[in-house]
Design brief:
This protein is of the alpha+beta class. The protein contains three helices and nine strands; from the N terminus they run αβββββββββαα. The protein is 35% helix and 28% strand. The longest helix is centred in the N-terminal third of the chain and has 63 residues.
Length: 202
């Protein structure tokens, strides 16, 4: 009986030690696993935090970086002022309406171009200022009056478009147009051929 008791006791002790050792090992293993998991978690969290910081920085850059405004188109170049000239570059003499033959000219269709102006049998327009606004275009400030009336001349601007030096089209500010071409005095009706216009056409 005593022998049996001695055998049982060591078995009980061994069993107890084994039972006590198991939890200790398990706790140690759990602590190691926890530490490892913590390390892994930190390793995973670090890039996430890093990305968040990068995203925040990028947002700040995008927010604070000024956006260039679209380029403002340059101002249109200033128009070149018309050159002032002394005379119209036209041959002086008789000008007859373009739709009228020179030999059939009349007071209503004939004008005489002089150095200082242009006029017909009843009216005369004195050139006050001549400005060349294009290769063959001239803006003329005229003072026009009726030769048979004492009313002061009226000043207006007429645009002359030249065709060479023997034809033109004039257009008033009100839109009235007139086209005429040069007619040699010798080709005019007798009344005009007899006139001495040399003093006004020089």
């Amino acid at each position: 009986m005593s022998q049996t008791r001695f055998i049982i006791m060591p078995l009980i002790l061994a069993t107890g030690l084994a039972a006590c050792g198991q939890p200790a090992d398990t706790a140690e293993n759990q602590n190691a696993a926890t530490a490892e998991n913590a390390t892994v978690t930190e390793g995973v969290a670090a890039p996430a935090n890093g990305n968040a910081a990068d995203a925040t920085a990028a947002t700040k850059v995008a927010t604070t970086t000024p956006v260039s405004a679209p380029a403002t188109p340059g101002a249109p170049p200033a128009q070149v002022e018309a050159a002032v000239v002394t005379v119209l570059p036209l041959k002086r003499g008789y000008y007859v309406a373009s739709d009228t033959p020179c030999g059939q000219a009349s007071n209503a269709t004939t004008t005489l171009l002089r150095r200082e102006g242009i006029g017909g049998a009843r009216d005369f327009c004195e050139f006050k200022k001549i400005e060349q606004s294009g290769p063959n275009t001239f803006r003329v400030t005229e003072a026009c009056g009726d030769l048979q009336d004492n009313v002061p001349p009226e000043t207006s601007v007429t645009t002359y478009t030249l065709k060479g030096d023997t034809a033109f089209t004039s257009k008033s500010a009100s839109g009235w147009e007139h086209s005429a071409r040069y007619c040699a005095q010798s080709s005019m009706p007798p009344d005009w051929r007899a006139n001495d216009i040399s003093d006004v056409t020089r």
